[in-house]
Write a structure and sequence with these properties.
Number of strands: 2
Helix content: 55-70%
Radius of gyration: 22 Å
Oligomer: single chain
Number of helices: 13
Largest sheet: 2 strands, antiparallel
Shape: globular
Structural class: mainly alpha
């Protein structure tokens, strides 16, 4: 994905509309893989979000550099690596598995006991809010990388206060009016200790609400200061995840069918496809180069904390998650200290590499300018994610569901790499 360093920075982007369409397709197809691995053993919650975010962040940075116009792209800076990686990871702090049964019209008091009928739209509604905050908060972090007008300390304090205020208001809302969100709440089902599934749903909505409120608070701040580009970016990302979260939930209605496929994974792959396309749309709408702007240089702090830190932290988390997932898949019971040893084996080299990058940046660059992260290292991160994904997906005994998933993973990655080749050929043919 790397063009020669000689590609002109002082000219307009050589990308055409079809190039951006290819980028969106690559983001979506690779997103299928990222999000499917995100829900696999070893990569649940925020660790899985970190893996998916890291993959998309690397793609965003590589595509920003593709035509040599990264310095003129509003969101082409290295800070996007941190924004996307940690933005998607934050979404993993919430849980939503308890609402899947609602999609099927099933409400359990204490799964699998106490089955009652419930309207399926309640499950779709909850999944919409999950996707809304997952993409929305990532969009907020991305928007912060290129505000229309720079923010001072006072404005930053107001922005953070808006997010905290939104989170607090949403938390109060679900606690004061839980019957508006939870089925059968007025019957007192959620107050019975034995109804563990009900209590799980209550705890989940209390966890999700602050994230949704924080996103809405940040969005209101951007609207108030009339930074329409930031607000639009946040909305594209929010709905770009909310829609596939919701629509893809339909896969769960096939759980009782005679064909025993991993329907849950079909849903997650739908999220990855839709989320990746949302990244591609955001790239096209908001990250095209400004030919009138001066070319931005990579600063030392951007290089260290915007790129190197999330890259090394993310890779360490990916390796650690792979160890956990591989051990769980193959039933390997390591001695108790092994988890600590593996975590240290990931953390220590990553820390040493970060310190080396800091020293290198200080010795060979200035505060205003630093050499960009080599493209080979970014491609290496993608290769690591692909390798890890396959390592935790090959079970000791192959079944239809496993073969089905591996075939889809391979097809998506193969087509993605083919599209990358087409994109590079098209760029090389530009005058």
């Amino acid at each position: 994905m790397n063009n020669s360093a000689g590609r002109k920075e002082n000219t307009a982007s050589l990308m055409r509309g079809t190039d951006y369409a290819l980028i969106a397709m690559i983001m979506g197809l690779m997103g299928v893989f990222f999000w499917a691995i995100r829900g696999t053993g070893g990569f649940g919650g925020e660790s899985g979000g970190l893996l998916a975010g890291l993959g998309w962040a690397v793609l965003w940075l590589l595509f920003s550099r593709l035509d040599g116009a990264a310095g003129r792209r509003p969101y082409g800076s290295g800070k996007m690596m941190a924004a996307i990686t940690f933005g998607i990871a934050v979404g993993g702090l919430t849980g939503y598995g308890v609402y899947i049964a609602w999609l099927q019209g099933k409400f359990y008091l204490d799964y699998p006991n106490g089955l009652r009928a419930v309207a399926p739209w309640t499950g779709y509604w909850m999944l919409f809010f999950c996707g809304l905050h997952w993409g929305g908060l990532a969009g907020a972090f991305m928007a912060w990388c290129a505000p229309k007008r720079p923010l001072g300390w006072g404005a930053w304090a107001a922005r953070i206060a808006a997010g905290i205020g939104g989170a607090f208001a949403a938390s109060c809302l679900v606690r004061m009016s839980p019957q508006s969100f939870l089925p059968f709440y007025s019957e007192g089902l959620y107050e019975i200790a034995g109804n563990k599934t009900c209590i799980r749903a209550l705890d989940s909505i209390r966890n999700i609400a602050p994230h949704v409120g924080m996103f809405l608070g940040f969005l209101c701040f951007e609207v108030f200061r009339r930074d329409w580009r930031a607000a639009a970016l946040m909305l594209v990302m929010a709905f770009g995840f909310a829609i596939p979260f919701t629509v893809g939930g339909y896969w769960h209605t096939f759980q009782d069918s005679a064909l025993k496929l991993p329907w849950w994974k079909n849903w997650e792959m739908s999220i990855g496809l839709g989320g990746g396309l949302a990244f591609g749309l955001a790239f096209f709408l908001f990250n095209r180069p400004d030919t009138k702007a001066a070319s931005r240089r990579v600063t030392r702090n951007e290089h260290i904390w915007g790129i190197c830190f999330p890259l090394l932290f993310g890779c360490g988390a990916v390796v650690n998650g792979a160890f956990e997932g591989f051990s769980r898949l193959h039933g390997i019971n390591w001695p108790a200290p092994m988890d600590t040893i593996v975590s240290a084996a990931c953390l220590v080299p990553a820390t040493l590499l970060l310190l080396w990058w800091i020293a290198l940046a200080r010795c060979h660059g200035t505060a205003e300018q630093a050499a960009p992260m080599p493209t080979w290292s970014l491609v290496g991160v993608l290769a690591l994610i692909w390798f890890v994904g396959y390592a935790i997906s090959f079970p000791p005994e192959m079944h239809l569901a496993n073969a089905y998933l591996l075939a889809l993973y391979t097809a998506c990655l193969t087509v993605s790499l083919g599209l990358v080749g087409v994109l590079r050929i098209r760029q090389a043919r530009q005058p």
